[in-house]
Amino acid sequence: MSEPQVWDDVDEYFSSQLSPDDEILLAALRDSEAAGLPAISVTATQGKLLQLLAQIQGARNILEIGTLGGYSTIWMARALPSDGRLISLEYSARYAEVASRNIARAGLDKVVEVRVGPALESLPKLADENPAPFDLVFIDADKANNPHYVDWALRLTSTGSLIVVDNVVRGGRVVETDSDAPDVRGTRAAIELIGSHPRLSGTAIQTVGGKGYDGFALARVLA
Ligand SMILES: C[S@@+](CC[C@H](N)C(=O)[O-])C[C@H]1O[C@@H](n2cnc3c(N)ncnc32)[C@H](O)[C@@H]1O
């Protein structure tokens, strides 16, 4: 058995025991695939981790940057109380439509709002609305803009909020100091911002299996 197969099997074992997809989540993945969306959602184990983090935060307000078909959105929104709110920002109107259908089927359309457009245009508009601080921000869009997203997340959160950045390993390329790839540069800049910012305390965890080598950065907002 090759190593990658072992890690896929381990991920499959954990998700089958701890975070099995139900019919709603499976349908979200199925309909996303049928609509031609790329298969780049978080895995079920990662979705469950996001849900647990939202619960640990006692989250009432969640911001997601990068909706795709709404798979991670559903995992997180299920942690919200009935009067909670999740705003998810998505560049593609077509993806947002697929996501909205998946979210409605999950019975979450009262708490989830998908906003279409480049996140760097949606975020200032959102800030102008003076929303309640977000308890959890999940950043999972174009990686080149990760430092800008962390910066916006800081403006839209308060002490004790949690910021999660997905895909920080980049298949190991995150350690390539001289890379000029925008995703690597953006990810490194976000990690370095988290590491150096006086109001952030962060770490990163590497993940393997399901979708290959990857990882999350997590940062708690300090006073
Ligand atoms: C990795 S996918 C999100 C996966 C989703 N969070 C999940 O796990 O189910 C990244 C998404 O970010 C969107 N995206 C890319 N650039 C964006 C931008 N500038 N503003 C908003 N969304 C963007 C893409 O269209 C894509 O749907």
UniProtKB/TrEMBL annotation:
Pfam families: Methyltransf_3. Keywords: Methyltransferase, S-adenosyl-L-methionine, Transferase. The keyword Methyltransferase applies. It comes from the Bacteria. PROSITE patterns: SAM_OMT_I (PS51682). Coiled coil: none annotated. The keyword Methyltransferase applies. GO terms for molecular function: O-methyltransferase activity; S-adenosylmethionine-dependent methyltransferase activity. GO terms for biological process: methylation. InterPro entries: Cation-dep_OMT, SAM-dependent_MTases_sf, SAM_O-MeTrfase. This is O-methyltransferase. It comes from Streptomyces chartreusis. The lineage of its organism: Bacteria, Bacillati, Actinomycetota, Actinomycetes, Kitasatosporales.
